[in-house]
Amino acid sequence: MNGLYSLLIAVSMYSKFPVPTVNWTRERMGYVMCWFPVVGVIEGLALWFWQWAGGRLGFTAAGSALVAAALPLIVTGGIHMDGFLDTMDAIHSYGDREKKLEILKDPHVGAFAVIGCGGYLLLYAAAAYEVTALGLWPLALPVFVMERALSGLSVVFFPCAKKSGLAATFSDGAKRRAAGISLSLWLAAALCLGGAVIPGGSAVTALGLVAVQLLVFAYYRRMAVGQFGGITGDLAGYFLQICELAGLFWLAAAGHMGFAG
């Protein structure tokens, strides 16, 4: 039963999808990262459904894309965007490591968070428009699953910048072996799904997506360890947002080059 409870905790914590409330015991928390990619499935299916519903309702591609750009924030409640904003303020402070970690904890929003949010949403809307116009939202599901599998692996195996906080809690309590195997299987399943559902040039599209996300993953580790001494929950959210945006742009580019759709 602890596995089911861990699933419910993961979904309730990382999304606004309604699930029964359960106690957050240390044993259950240890398996939360195993289920993190489930939230990616929910997000992907929501966007897939919206592509269908928007078309039936007569939305233009632009209108449908703007709704699609907002849906991830609606599904997740903005938990990862919060980390992105905090990280933008911290990185652009150009302070020392301790200063940056203090900024991550600061609940106030700085100028670079606002600038970063505006720029990010414009880029996300552009990517969403291209994916919408090409009708590729059903093929984007691997993007949302793989990024969360990689984020979970970082929480479990990367050094933590602090001994307290969200990332440290999951890292300390995680059943590392189970989490590593589970998240690796999620990665493999997402890759196989991408190869199965993307017609024409699927191998190029799927492998390109892996390459894009691994490049972002490598940047994330280098940045987190180099500037912060390890990862935090905010940095994990920052990675997920950047990885998602890069994945959607790759999918749009692959579609235009005839590798998808």
TrEMBL record:
<protein>
    <recommendedName>
        <fullName>Adenosylcobinamide-GDP ribazoletransferase</fullName>
        <ecNumber>2.7.8.26</ecNumber>
    </recommendedName>
</protein>
<feature type="transmembrane region" description="Helical">
    <location>
        <begin position="57"/>
        <end position="79"/>
    </location>
</feature>
<feature type="transmembrane region" description="Helical">
    <location>
        <begin position="109"/>
        <end position="129"/>
    </location>
</feature>
<comment type="function">
    <text>Joins adenosylcobinamide-GDP and alpha-ribazole to generate adenosylcobalamin (Ado-cobalamin). Also synthesizes adenosylcobalamin 5'-phosphate from adenosylcobinamide-GDP and alpha-ribazole 5'-phosphate.</text>
</comment>
<dbReference type="InterPro" id="IPR003805">
    <property type="entry name" value="CobS"/>
</dbReference>
<feature type="transmembrane region" description="Helical">
    <location>
        <begin position="178"/>
        <end position="198"/>
    </location>
</feature>
<dbReference type="GO" id="GO:0009236">
    <property type="term" value="P:cobalamin biosynthetic process"/>
</dbReference>
<keyword id="KW-0812">Transmembrane</keyword>
<feature type="transmembrane region" description="Helical">
    <location>
        <begin position="204"/>
        <end position="223"/>
    </location>
</feature>
<feature type="transmembrane region" description="Helical">
    <location>
        <begin position="135"/>
        <end position="158"/>
    </location>
</feature>
<dbReference type="Pfam" id="PF02654">
    <property type="entry name" value="CobS"/>
</dbReference>
<keyword id="KW-0472">Membrane</keyword>
<keyword id="KW-0460">Magnesium</keyword>
<keyword id="KW-1133">Transmembrane helix</keyword>
<feature type="transmembrane region" description="Helical">
    <location>
        <begin position="235"/>
        <end position="259"/>
    </location>
</feature>
<keyword id="KW-0808">Transferase</keyword>
<feature type="transmembrane region" description="Helical">
    <location>
        <begin position="30"/>
        <end position="51"/>
    </location>
</feature>
<dbReference type="GO" id="GO:0051073">
    <property type="term" value="F:adenosylcobinamide-GDP ribazoletransferase activity"/>
</dbReference>
<dbReference type="InterPro" id="IPR016102">
    <property type="entry name" value="Succinyl-CoA_synth-like"/>
</dbReference>
<keyword id="KW-1003">Cell membrane</keyword>
<comment type="similarity">
    <text>Belongs to the CobS family.</text>
</comment>
<keyword id="KW-0169">Cobalamin biosynthesis</keyword>
<comment type="pathway">
    <text>Cofactor biosynthesis; adenosylcobalamin biosynthesis; adenosylcobalamin from cob(II)yrinate a,c-diamide: step 7/7.</text>
</comment>
<dbReference type="GO" id="GO:0008818">
    <property type="term" value="F:cobalamin 5'-phosphate synthase activity"/>
</dbReference>
<dbReference type="GO" id="GO:0005886">
    <property type="term" value="C:plasma membrane"/>
</dbReference>
